[in-house]
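anyone else get weird line breaks when pasting these?? whatever heres mine. first is seq + tokens for prot A
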Amino acid sequence: MSLFVLAAGGMLLAALAFVLVPLLRGRRAGNPQARLLPAAALLIALPALAALLYVTQGGNRLPASGTDELPPVAEMVASLERRLAEEPRDLDGWLMLGRSYVVLQRYADAARAYGQAYDLSGGRDAAVITAYAETLALEDADALGGRAGELFDHALELQPSDPKALWYGGLAAWARGDLAAARDRWTRLRALGPPPAVDQLLADRLAEIDQLSGVPAPDVPGDAPSGAAAAPAEPGVALSIAVDPSLRGRLEAGGTLYVIARAEGAGGPPLAVVRRSAAELPLTLQLTDADAMLPGRRLSDHARLSLTARVSASGEPLPASGDLAGEASWRSGQAGPVELTIDRVIP
């Protein structure tokens, strides 16, 4: 497996972790499948994930251009559709079209395009199989327990160390209640050395599987040895977070506080996310590179950060009407903690 594939898989999983950590971390009793599918439906619907997949897996296949600007995506897609109508056996063309449809959130069309690529590859290319299965799940989360799950199983037969197939294959196994298979796949994925946030997510899921199975949790790769010395604290961004007195009455018991850092003026997945209980407010905390969501994107690489604190009554990671929020900015070299006040209600 190439280092590029591993890195792309790691970036994908880190983005997924932003959504999955709060959704899957709860220890509610009951059927694991009932808890998984709503989370899976949310994570695979994220437009940010679709864009990340396009960049990490398909950006290097864009057609060459004599300028730095590319035509609009819709125009490129229309041109590609016309070309494939004339050259229907162009495997790379169907793969590019499928990725483009994912960016446009046209998941049914993406599944059709990847289905064409699957047929042309004879069902023997693990990367094509995984992409096809993923779009089936994007179109319908329940497919993880059906056709998409079967395709992920087949992809793992062909490429047992594919990071994306291991991740989704674990989800598919969990969806059908096969905890042993889910544990095996996520253990193998963890052994590939994903980013710290993803590694912790996988460790939590493996521990939950052991708890549901009624067996002691064995050691898994990456666990810190007992008695290991704690690493020295990293420098970072000090935050002092408070709630405006006029909104204190709107804080609900059991609310979840999300603290999010982004490069100022940048979109896409956040640089770092911290999840705490709203009951801890007011509080102070330190954001460091250890909280980074994506490999190679560190807080310390940026001189200006945009910081958001949001209290979600439902615990959901995505903003919703009625959530409480506040923003502040950080500049490299500034003295003292950033004062961030939660002072507005999301309409």
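and prot B, same format (seq, then tokens)
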Amino acid sequence: MSSASALRHLVLASGNPGKLREYQVLAAGHDLELQLLPGFADIAEFREDALTFAENAAGKALYYSRHCPDLVFADDSGLVVPVLGGAPGVQSARYAGLGASNDARIAKLLSTLQGTHEAGRAAYFVCVIAVALRGRCLAVVSDKVDGRILESPQGTCGFGYDPVFYFPPLARAFAELNLEEKNQHSHRGKAFRRLIDVLQ
């Protein structure tokens, strides 16, 4: 495979079509073809149990790249609240227990922060993306977006912790941003644009 063709074709280590669509929007205009990993559901699941986003992303990219001849990329992302020692962190999706809903995770976060003054509600979203080829890691990039945790949810767009993540530059919660605004400012959008720069 030539480097030119590799740059045009990236395989997402996921079986989630929603996540693929999100990345396809971010890749628009960059002459990139993205697809889900063929046969993803038939491959034993990679356990994301490392202590850092970078280890989880790189481990996942390396693992699934052994099942595919093309460039494979994987991400790990989450919410970090410094006053909570970095929680939810890599446990963002499991913060309220396995299988818990977004509402349950948000409720636990707000309960934990109850009574915390504004400065202590500082938080940031982080996204790490790794790309690998046939068991060899080629790049790991990351980016983040700073904000603070609201006292109650606002907005109906987005997912995860978006309704309680206030973004000061636009004076709105992430769940109140439209798709274009979210892609421009989100941790995932910024990290993916960084990946494109590295690959090119």
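btw re prot B: The chain has one domain: 3-199. The two ends are 16 Å apart (CA to CA).
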